[in-house]
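Q: I have 341 residues here and want to know how they pack in 3D. Can you give me a structure?
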Amino acid sequence: GTKTDGFLFTFKKIAWTPGTISAIGYDKNGKQVCATSKMTAGSPTAIRLKAITHPKGLQANGHDLALVEVEVVDAKGNRCPTALNMINFSLAGEAEWRGGIAQGPDNYILSKDLPVECGVNRVFVRSTTKAGPVTITAKAEGLKSATITLLSKPVANSNGLSTVLPASGLTSYLKRGPTPKGTSFKVLRESVKIVSATAGANADSAFASFDDNELSDWVNNGQLSTAWIEYELEKEAVVTEVALKLNNFRSRTYPLRITVDGKEAFADTTTRSLGYFTAICKPQKGKKVRIQLATLSKDQAGEIMAEVSGKKLDDGVTRDDKNAKGTLSIIEAEIYEKPKQ
């Protein structure tokens, strides 16, 4: 496949038809290192429940939780990834309903009726202090219902206090071997503090682009000639990266030019993202970093980035002038240098 965007690879000349598609990965020597497959699902026919509990089972201590996964499946047991069915739950036995979450009224908090999203959702039940069976039933219009029963186990206590820790007796996971000596991470960059900023327009709000508050931003007046902001660093530094959270980060690309004391460090177009874009710079030494819009920005199919419900995802700070192509709006800016050796 051809890498087209981040972790997205495009495979050309593949016709859409029901069945199984497989992907196999090889290392540089041609040795297979991974494989997976996906099968297209049929029509939704039933509900499937699966419980995930403490390795010792559900503990009747009044606070242990069981996570119950609910899926809409076809006749062969394949999850239906386009299913959005409303599921109606009922609970009986020694447990308390803690519910799940989904996009909708009050996010369905504590509701016993909530939808699956992409064919799946999960809910919690919490044990009581009395051991016994816990039965959960899930129903939906047009689907075969499902029931699952858990048995909560008694927990020893002394005057209401447990005599053992919840993790007592669990087997340690040692397959990864001993902890390596020395540090387990590498510092690849260090931030350089911004002390002040000026801008082509609305300079009095330029501080909002580096105040560590993602609910505020700096924006120019929509004119290309004023679409710049310049930061003064607390010290002279060799700038190697500039991380930016730009307004409309999901739906817009910005052709930017970044200079350090007047020397060009970056000249390219940002990519749409889920938040921050990191500009990898040609290392330049200086104390003033200017970011400016080189040409008009461009909207790029922001409508595809939406929840399964069709609601458009967050795209930054809401502004009336967000469609002005000469607008440069920065929510947060961070400037980095390489760490000292």
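Q: Anything worth noting?
A: The chain has a mean pLDDT of 90. The chain is about 0% helix and 45% strand.
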